[in-house]
Design a protein that fits this description.
Elements lengths: L19 H11 L10 E5 L6 H15 L4 E5 L7 H22 L4 H18 L17 H11 L5 H13 L5 E5 L7 H14 L5 E7 L1 H8 L4 H11 L2 E4 L5 H15 L13 H10 L7 H18 L5 H13 L1 H9 L18 H9 L2 H7 L7 H9 L21 H9 L9 H9 L2 H14 L2 H11 L8 H9 L1 H6 L8 H18 L5 H13 L3 H15 L16 H21 L10 H8 L5 H13 L1 H12 L6 H7 L2 H14 L1 H16 L4
Parallel strand pairs: 1-4, 1-5, 2-3, 3-4
Helix pairs in contact: 1-2, 3-4, 3-7, 4-5, 4-6, 7-8, 8-9, 10-12, 11-17, 12-13, 13-14, 13-17, 22-24, 22-25, 24-26, 25-27, 26-27, 26-28, 27-28, 29-30, 31-33, 32-33
């Protein structure tokens, strides 16, 4: 099956709307049970793209099936220009078809060839300026006799009325049905519409010929009445005896057509396995066929767009969101243009350039705007099919309590995805899904090299964010290895950078989320997650392990904390307590060996040790003494305690003498201008922060 929206179906096998019964009944209206044309003029009406041309193809096949000797003439005035050309080409098609059928049909051949000759003469007088026989396709030598008879007849002085009577008498004796199917009448210029109408009037009352004209009624009335609809309608009534609208398609038929078109248009590698059972597909199908995709052409246009766009963004945009975007392109291009101008109306994470000249009061009001306001800014009325489609694609526009849908990594509601669609390519510096897949397929050495290279290029953050986005949708060949390597980043990569200021702690928080996602949503066994933590602890990655354990302890209500969301817990209380105890032993061992400040880069290991009541007064006194006598230790402790955020004076005092730290920061700041900014921020944080 082809997927060009303007190309109609040709075979009954392609009929997805169940029109076979209607076509059979229509064929019986044009050809009587005794095998003769009824002589009726039928108008088949429907808007552009509703399937009129497809139905004419089905009708021709049905007539020829029921009546093998029938003469079915197809005429498309859209392929012709000019009044005389319309008349000439109509008779050219009529003569060519009659001649072809007559040549192939020995029983009726002579009669049909004589009829063709008389029609040729009649046509010459209807359009005397036209060169009829020079444009008759397929006449050839078989029609030469008919042509010579016509030329002889033309030498006689006979009126059109006389010729009309002769043709009527001849057609009365023709015992094969002649059916003329005229398509695309609504596509031509007004003058051609009127020319076809005059032509049908001139020949429509011949016995033995039935006509079916396919058109958009409002367009034809406009052309016939020269913008006067009443006059045009009256004119049309004189030509067409019976107008029949295209049958109404029920929802199941429309949905079946769209599903079939989509399946045929899109390669299986682009469609995910099990796409038909996706609840979002069911919802999209219901919305799309509730007033958006109203004609077969609509379905074909959308699926054709999808077939072109999908390979451009495959792997970067969710398959169903892209299909919804294609519906917007086809049916609401003004809304797409509004989204292009103001993507913040629909996405939940669009970046903001805080250095730009922005009215922040107005900006804040826009951010607080509800779905109705955002829809209004897009020019869309609430509670319409278009509004429902937008709500499906962009959660920020949801106004009803519809059942929540799964969070999709590459949904259009994310800025990166939307911009990928609008650009038909990635943003500068964006990370592709292919890069993530290639990373996960590598060995341990290549993975570390890639992470180090990205850190040096300052692209590690976007890479890890993208990895977290798509990790649950990509089959990781070695999840334990991957998680272990990613847990090493905070120490082996971030902490290795000079003057690191918070990257280590931010990376540990990222690792919490990734590990939680792997266990809770990606099917990674809990035992595997616990082994990863045990291995990292044994290898000295205290910051990452401590951050995970403190988060799990908080979720479970351990270490004196009030229980938070139990759904965040995936480790058992026993495992958390055991690993926390082991980590505290390592922290204390480093303190005794004098290596603590080179073993931890965030306060998380100290917090956890304190939670277990293992940070003693001796530990506090020893760290205080290091800060008092060693400027390097002072800088390290400042980064350790304040590099990740803010810590109040009382909490600083838990780990060392906070007053001494303040004095030392002031002295170092006075002596070292390059350190003054960081020292001042740390002093302010300790004195003013009320949060841990």
């Amino acid at each position: 099956m082809n997927h060009r929206p303007d190309r109609p179906i040709k075979s009954p096998a392609d009929d997805r709307l169940g029109r076979d019964g209607f076509v059979a009944r229509l064929a019986r209206a044009l050809v009587t049970s005794d095998g003769r044309a009824s002589g009726v003029v039928v108008g088949l009406t429907g808007p552009w793209g509703s399937g009129k041309s497809s139905l004419l193809n089905l009708l021709q096949a049905e007539i020829e099936r029921q009546h093998p000797a029938a003469v079915v003439v197809r005429f498309d005035p859209w392929l012709v220009s000019g009044r005389d050309d319309v008349i000439t080409q109509f008779f050219a098609e009529l003569l060519a078809t009659i001649t072809m059928v007559g040549t192939a049909n020995g029983r009726h051949g002579d009669m049909l060839r004589d009829l063709g000759a008389k029609l040729a003469g009649y046509a010459k007088d209807l359009a005397p300026a036209a060169g009829l026989f020079s444009v008759v396709p397929g006449v050839g030598m078989a029609a030469a006799g008919a042509v010579r008879v016509a030329e002889t007849l033309l030498t006689r002085d006979r009126s059109l009325a006389a010729q009309h009577r002769e043709l009527a008498d001849m057609l009365t004796g023709v015992d094969v049905p002649i059916v003329v199917l005229i398509d695309e009448l609504d596509r031509v210029e007004d003058a051609e519409v009127r020319a076809v109408a005059q032509l049908v009037r001139a020949v429509a009352d011949f016995p033995g010929i039935s006509y079916l004209l396919a058109y958009d009624r409002s367009r034809v009335i406009e052309a016939l009445g020269d913008k006067n609809s009443e006059r045009g309608a009256a004119y049309l009534e004189k030509i067409v005896q019976l107008e029949i609208p295209l049958p109404v398609a029920v929802r199941s038929e429309t949905q079946g057509l769209f599903t079939t078109e989509f399946e045929a248009a899109v390669p299986s590698g682009v469609r995910p396995d099990g796409w038909r059972s996706d609840p979002r597909w069911t919802r999209l199908l219901a919305i799309a066929t509730d007033g958006l995709l109203t004609t077969p052409r609509d379905s074909r246009r959308v699926c054709g767009m999808y077939a072109v766009l999908a390979p451009m963004v495959v792997g970067e945009v969710d398959w169903l969101d892209l299909l919804g975007y294609c519906i917007l392109l086809a049916k609401a291009p003004a809304v797409v243009e509004a989204i292009r101008r103001k993507p913040r109306l629909v996405v939940r994470d669009a970046p903001v350039d805080r250095e730009a000249d922005i009215d922040w009061v107005a900006f804040s009001e826009q951010e607080r705007a509800g779905p109705d306001r955002r829809l209004a800014d897009l020019g869309v009325e609430a509670e319409t099919p278009l509004a429902h489609l937008l709500a499906l694609l962009f959660p920020r526009l949801r106004t009803t309590g519809a059942a929540p849908l799964p969070d999709i990594a590459d949904s259009l509601g994310r800025h990166r995805t939307l911009m990928t669609v609008l650009r038909l390519g990635l943003l500068p510096g964006a990370v592709s899904r292919h890069e993530i897949t290639r990373f996960l397929a590598g060995d341990e050495g290549s993975m570390l090299i890639q992470l180090q290279a990205r850190s040096a290029e300052q692209t590690l953050g976007p890479f890890l964010d993208r990895l977290q986005d798509v990790y649950r949708e990509i089959a990781d060949p070695a999840p334990e290895r991957t998680l272990r390597i990613l847990g090493r980043i905070s120490r082996d990569i971030d902490a290795a950078t000079p003057e690191h200021s918070g990257e280590c702690h931010a990376r540990c928080l990222w690792f919490i989320e990734l590990l939680h996602q792997a266990v809770k949503r990606c099917g990674v066994p809990i035992e595997l997650g616990a082994r990863v933590l045990t291995t990292l602890l044994a290898d000295g990655h205290l910051d990452a392990v401590a951050t995970v354990l403190r988060h799990q302890g908080s979720a479970l209500g351990l270490f004196g904390d009030k229980q938070q969301d139990i759904n965040d817990a995936w480790l058992s209380p026993e495992t958390v307590k055991h690993l926390a105890g082991e980590l505290a032993k390592v922290v204390l061992a480093h303190w005794k060996a004098g290596t603590l400040l080179s073993a931890v880069y965030t306060p998380e290991p100290l917090f956890l040790t304190h939670n277990l009541d293992q940070w003693s007064e001796d530990c506090r006194a020893g760290l205080t003494e290091r800060v008092r006598v060693d400027d390097g230790a002072l800088r390290t402790v400042t980064l350790l305690l304040f590099g990740y955020g803010m810590m109040g004076f009382a909490h600083v005092n838990t780990f060392l003498d906070a007053a001494l730290l303040q004095e030392r920061l002031a002295a170092v700041a006075d002596a070292d201008p390059a350190w003054a900014g960081r020292a001042g921020n740390a002093r302010w944080s300790a004195l003013n922060c009320r949060r841990f």
